[in-house]
Amino acid sequence: MSAPQGSDLPFLPFALPEIGEEEIAEVVDTLRSGWVTTGPKARKFEQAFTEFLGEPEIECIAVNSATAGLHLALEAIGVGPGDEVITTTHTFTATAEVVRYLGADVVLVDIDPATLNIDPALIEAAITPRTKAIVPVHYAGLAADMLTILDIARRHGLRVVEDAAHALPTTLEKELIGTMGSDATVFSFYANKTMTTGEGGMLVTRNPKIAARAKVMRLHGINRDAFDRFTAKVPSWYYEIVAPGFKYNLTDIAAALGLHQLKRLKGFQARREQIAQAYHEAFADLPLILPPQPVEGDTHSWHLYVLRLADECAVERDAFIEQMFARGIGCSVHYIPLHLQPYWRERYQLTPEQFPHSQKAYERTFSIPLYTAMTDADVQRVIAAVREIALR
Ligand SMILES: *Cc1c(COP(=O)(O)O)cnc(C)c1O
């Protein structure tokens, strides 16, 4: 066996954030300001996010993770014991675990094999009298079929909370995800997402009741407005506890990063798009199924670039990833479906046969590096490695 190609080059990680001098200066400014926890910069970040979404009536609530945001959104719509929440098996466990935090049950359904997004027909088939909400995930950054999902929700009186951890910025029918008309949408600013605050998330909603409840539950169940209603002047030390809330606030240190990452988001997306198109062109003739493109005029965030081995591809998925690693290139798998994870499998007695499309996608897919900090040479190196392995 010959030595692996390119193994003399430094390792190319699967994902890396792009943090610039402006982010660093803003963090330093925050540290010097004396206000390091939630304060003026978190507020400014929320306002900037509302501006980014382009609709002043949308409230943005900064939280310390998307997981926290999903938990708050489901709590605010009243998910509780006895309820069922329908979501996709082809996701990260955070999407589903928040339902269990609230004592409700998760109903997992299979995906559309073309998009790897939740299949709306299977959502409709899974509805029972206990169903309370649907949680679609915009897998890899391609919008889920929200028009059909919102229509199902309307017809059955269900709530919709979007897990938009991958979908910043993503559009459907030229509308940004976050403005589609669901009850709430949650974005993630985890280190490997399309913009980052280290850890962080944003819950966005047009519903003032959801916003008010999420704000109270984000910080210990503290409500200052309860006092405001009766007294003109609130002493700065006074607060009321109206519920056993959580500790989910975003720090100003994190928000300082977010302010500048958000400014750069359009540019980030353009670079991701450029890399995705380079991959599409370079891989068109290989025994690989390439990720679906959005319809003309819509935006894919390209959080992930997921390759699928065609049936005629001679290499197995695990071997493909191993050979990429041997060439110094990190890859990943999105996802090990929830129906294969011990907790979910055992709690709901799930089998692979119930999720044939997700199961097949799991066995045949892997994600290759796609991030703005990649150089053109990095992109060419990934292309060369994929071509060489696939054509063996
Ligand atoms: C990253 C991710 C989350 C969780 O985001 P955090 O900000 O890390 O809590 C939830 N759902 C999906 C699909 C994700 O990829």
Verbal overview:
The protein is an alpha/beta fold. It has two domains: 21-263, Aspartate Aminotransferase, domain 2 (3-Layer(aba) Sandwich); 265-390, Aspartate Aminotransferase, domain 1 (Alpha-Beta Complex). Helix content is 39%, strand content 14%. It has 14 helices and 14 strands. It has helices at residues 21-33, 40-53, 66-76, 93-101, 120-126, 146-156, 208-218, 225-228, 252-263, 265-283, 317-326, 342-348, 356-364, 376-390, and strands spanning 59-63, 84-88, 105-109, 131-135, 159-163, 171-172, 175-176, 184-188, 201-205, 222-223, 240-241, 288-289, 305-309, 365-368. The strands form four sheets. It has a seven-stranded mixed beta sheet with strand order 1-9-8-5-4-2-3, with helices on both faces. The chain has a three-stranded antiparallel beta sheet with strand order 12-13-14. Strand 4 (131-135), helix 6 and strand 5 (159-163) form a beta-alpha-beta unit. Helix 2 packs parallel to helix 9 (252-263). The structure holds pyridoxal-5'-phosphate. Pyridoxal-5'-phosphate binds at residues 65-67, 91-92, 94-95, 137, 163, 165-166, 188, 190, 201. Keywords: Aminotransferase, Pyridoxal phosphate, Transferase. This is DegT/DnrJ/EryC1/StrS family aminotransferase.
Name of the CATH homologous superfamily of the largest domain: Type I PLP-dependent aspartate aminotransferase-like (Major domain)
With strands numbered from the N-terminus, the spatial order across the biggest sheet is 1-9-8-5-4-2-3
Determine the CATH topology of the largest domain: Aspartate Aminotransferase, domain 2
Label the overall shape: globular
Query: How many beta-strand segments?
Result: 14
